[in-house]
Amino acid sequence: MSKAMSAKPGDIITKIAVRVVFDPYFERVILGTHLEPLPRAGRQAPITYRVKAPLPQPEVYRELRNQRFTTPLEDLLSAAQSEVETLAGELRDWHGNLPEGINNSDKAGEIDEAASTLENLSFPDVPDELTGIKVLHLPALEQDSRPKRNAEVVSMLEDAIGALNSRADELREAIEDAKKEPDNTAVAPGAAMTRPDEEDETDPQEMISRIESLVSELEEVKGELENVTFPSMM
């Protein structure tokens, strides 16, 4: 058993020992509940934690992590759109504040082009019946530059698209299962598609069509973002 997993409340363990067992997201998942960060003795000293509660088993940790980073589709796309708008605003401000002599340069043109691309991006509206689809998205740990922040938005869209495609597959499978029922009387197709947390029943084939349409629109936005070139700082 690893040192981290054998640690008892009150024990001191290093970050390295924790990372042997858990991924880098542990600081956002079990810090505060299971681990208490301790002051460092110096810049060269190892990062340490005091154990507050026995650390969860890896499979339990993964469940906690996934719960922590699972959000409704609508919220995830709203956050993605907000970040795009922020990036566009930063580039537009940069372009508008270029010094004399540079505001007509190739650099100015690159900044303007990137800003315009982001400003003209249109995120699709999410149909009401799809807003609550849950999406697991593990955010990038490093977002210290505009290209990395843009890549994070692309990753958010990829996870949203993945969740939508999974939901469409579930619906298709349910349709096929319903067809196998004798005379299709044992399971009504509409009922087969309905989850406990869904108040209204939407025709499953119509739902699949809406998902495919939304996925297509999100793919288009993602493609635009992937083609944005962010000028380097001067």
Describe the overall structure.
- Helices cover 54% and strands 7% of the residues.
- The relative contact order is 0.11.
- It is mainly α and 234 residues long.
- Helix 5 (73-96) packs antiparallel against helix 6 (106-119), helix 5 runs antiparallel to helix 7 (146-180) and helix 7 (146-180) runs antiparallel to helix 9 (204-226).
- The protein is built from 9 helices and 5 strands.
- The protein has helices spanning 3-6, 15-21, 26-29, 58-68, 73-96, 106-119, 146-180, 189-193, 204-226; strands at residues 12-14, 35-37, 48-51, 70-72, 134-136.
- The chain has a 3-stranded antiparallel β-sheet with strand order 1-3-2. It has a two-stranded antiparallel sheet with strand order 4-5.
- Mean pLDDT is 91; it is low at 189-194.
